[in-house]
Each structure stands twice: as C-alpha cells, then as structure tokens.
Amino acid sequence: MGNLVEGEADMPLRSALTIRLHPADDVVIARTQLVGGTVLAEERITVAGLIPPGHKVAARPLAAGDPVRRYNQVIGFARRPIGAGEHVHLHNLAMGSFERERAIGVDAHPTAFVDPPAMFMGIVRREGPAAGRVATRNYIGILSTVNCSATVARGIAAHFGPAALEAFPNVDGVVALTHGTGCGMDVAGEGMRVLRRTLAGYARHANFGGIVLVGLGCEANQASALLGDAGLRESAQLASFSIQDTGGTAKSIARGIRAVEEMLPRVNAVAREPVPASALVLGLQCGGSDGYSGITANPVLGTAADLLVRHGGTAILSETPEIYGAEHLLTRRAASPAVAAKLLARLDWWEDYTARERGEMNNNPSPGNKAGGLTTILEKALGSVAKGGTTNLVEVYEYAEPVTARGFVFMDTPGYDPVSATGQVAGGANLIVFTTGRGSAYGCAPAPSLKLSTNTALWLRQQEDIDLDCGAILDGEATVDGLGATLFDAMLATASGAKTKSELHGYGQNEFVPWQVGAVM
Questions:
Q1: CB 36: neighbour CB atoms within 10 A?
Q2: What is the DSSP string of 441-498?
Q3: Among 79, 330, 332, which Cα is nearest to 68's?
Q4: Are 378 and 74 within 8 A, CB to CB?
Q5: Angstrom distance (rounded) from CA 486 to CA 12
Q6: Can you spell out the DSSP letters for 43-107?
Q7: I need a surface site. Which of 30, 196, 241, 472 has the fewest CB within 10 A?
Q8: Which residues are bridge partners to 397 per DSSP?
Q9: What is the pLDDT of residue 12?
C-alpha cells in the first residue's frame, strides 16, 4: 500500500470475500457482491443487507460520531450508529473536522539510486525550443492562441492524415490543440498567466518537433506577448501568424499547411537512440476511481514511480482537491519545511477558492466514484496519494510551471483529469500513466498515456482501452511490487515508441484542456 502502511504486519489480509487493509481498520472491503446473511468468518461478523463489490463493510459496531478508519486513517465519521456487518457508505458516513499530524519531513529518507540506470530509445532534441531534452514522441503541433482560431488550427491538422505523412515515417502525426478561451479575460490576470504558461509549455515540449501557433489577431492573448513572456521566438521549428493578417480562414489554413510542409523534412530527420530513464518525466493520473483504486492500481503506479525516481527520473503527482485529507502523508515526506509549506499553501488556496465559489472540498468523489465504493474525499485522497509512491517530495509547482527538479514532485492542478494532465504535460511530462476503476477513456497528445484497471471485471469489459490489469492483486495472484516492475518495463517500452491503446484509438487532441481561472469578461 505504498505510504499508507508500515511493514509486513500491515499488508492487506485477504479472505475469500473481503480485504482488510490494516488491523486497526473499522471497515473491510468487499471483493465480490455480498448478500445479507453471509458470514465473514475471518471478521466474525454477518453481513446485513446487500453490499456491492469494492464497498465497505463495518467490521465492528460504531457509535454516532465515531471516526471510521480505512488504511488506518480517518475517512469520515459515523452519521448514526452502525452495526457490525452493515454497509458503510453515503447514508451513514460523513465528513468531519479533525487534526492531522503533518510531522513535516519525518518520513523523508535518502533515495537508493540505481547505477547504471535503465535505458530506453528516445529522441534527443538538439535544436529548437526543446533543445537538450528527450522526446518519447515526434509530433508537429498546431496551437491556437484563442478559441476564435480553433477552426483554422483543426483545418491545418486535418490535412495531414496518414496518406500525407507516408513519406515521413518518423513523424507521429500533426495534431491541433485548441481550447475555449484566450479572450474576454484580464490580460494581466491570473487566468491569462496560466493560459500563456500552458501554451508556452506545449510550444517548448520535447515531444513536438515543430509548432505552428495560430491567432485571430485582435484577441487578448496576443501571440507576440505569449512568445515574449516565454522567451520563445519564431524559427524553423516555430511558426506564428494570425487569421486577420493572413486574410481569412481559407488563406490561413493554406498558410498553416505550407508551414507544416516546410517543417516535415526537418522533423522527420530524427533517430531514436539509447537514453537513460532519468530523461522520463511521468505524469501520475487517476480517473473514474473505485473502492479498489487505493488497493491495486494506484499502489502499482506508486511502485513504478518509485522505480523511476530511483533510476533518476521525475514523477509528478497532481489533482490537489483529490489529496485533500491525505496531505499529511505528503508533508511527512517533504524534503524540507519550505517544500511542505508550498504544498499547504496550495491547499489553503483551494479552500478559499471553493468557499468563494460557494462550494466545498467534499464535492468529490464524483457519482461514478461513489457507485464504485468511495464515500468521502478523505477516503478517495488516501487512495490517490498511493500513486506517488514512497520517495521524498522534493518540490511543489503551480499549474503548468516548468518542472526542473528530479525526483517526486507535486503540481497544483484541479482534479478533473484532462485539465490536470494538460498542466503536467505543459510542465514537461513526456509520459502519462492513468489508473481507473470505472473505465476511463482517455489519451493525451503529445505525451503517450498508459491506462491501468483496478479490477479484472473492468479489464474484461473494456480492455480495448486499458493497457494493464491490476485486478489479480485482489485474488492474491499478483503483487503490487511485481506489477509495479511490469509497469515500469511497459513505461520504458512506451517511451521507446510502443503504441498505447489510446494512441491506437486516436485520442489526444480533444483532451487538451487548459485550466480556466478567473472571470470571463
């Protein structure tokens, strides 16, 4: 269970019907649907009523107001008396305030680096905005400064189907990454800073061999200001123009096509070569989570993240609203008090943000998460942080900031997966791993995305979208460490060019969703 347990005595205990995650837990997890009258011999209780797979069963009687523990951590408080064997969920478990022992840095420890590190076949950028960095894919990107130029951007990319790229086998594709903002906003406000940071991050991303930036001409997000703020300039790898200056839609599409055609020979002239795993920057994602996420796929991803850090690479945990209630597990691993303070400052920002919007942090889990067995954000967060493994938290970044540190880091993002992953990729992530218990259909361009299922029933139902099944852990047929090593190997293969399921389906362009912060004017 990664950073949620403390030794072999606390490892999950499986019975035929349930999983106990910690001896001190007040609940066990149903491995299959349980019907009333079923005797759970190991727990010495009898099930009361129908309990779906992945949901919680009270392992002992609980009084109203009692804290309820899973992973030996508080996930909520009993709304009313709960009998042993009862279903524990929305009807009888609620949020509540309690002190969390943040104990900054007490679990920080030296990382045991692997020497020599693992290798993969990457593309070393030797010129252009990404010079000096390593790519896992080789795209040309069409970026829009504003929603008004999105149609032109898509028109340019649409011209370059498989037939148009036959002569350029080293080019993975031409993709249009468009968005719904760029005007009607304060040019000096936070929203504009976030948008420009995001677009600049994509413009300099290692997985783009060339960029065409398309504007309308009169928008708030002027291309010249975007490029100037980011220290970017036009070159053989970066072209920029506006629809108004070019003379309209058709002329702009034609101009963009010519720009891409000029780039194609240069972008195609690359060769993969052996590079160390330290060149990998991994975005950690989960979506459509269920009651098994924190038991199987998320710890598997945490193990792979630990392996990557030990090989010198970088792993980015994000989705700030989805670590709420488990932040103390991260501050305990903070490399310094300053790093912990940065993380807590971002959580303070979110509490203020949700209050201003008349919301609450517990608006998560989603309906699908709840159907899968998750009840409160505290419970979801405890499973979510397992993606981050066990190594030290070495830095905290704001949304879409360039990630320069090596090791395990945190980036402040919303919990909504496409928005979160967009920030990670803007920060430099050249690979995404995405866990799901409900069946997320997701892909990312330009960074390939591997998907993991938390349970075998999902894998059997939707394996056309999922790359690795972690459900065998529930049956004791696989281990977290074993599947973590398997995932690490799959990450190296993907970074070397092996296609993921989402890439084969053509996902990636529509999943570019920059975070919209601030007022729309």
A1: 12
A2: ----SSS-EEEEESSHHHHHHHTTS-SEE-GGGGGTSS-HHHHHHHHHHHHHHHHTTP
A3: 79
A4: yes
A5: 21
A6: TTEE-BS-B-TT-EEESS-B-TT-EEEETTEEEEEESS-B-TTBEESTTTEE---------TTTT
A7: 472
A8: 411
A9: 66
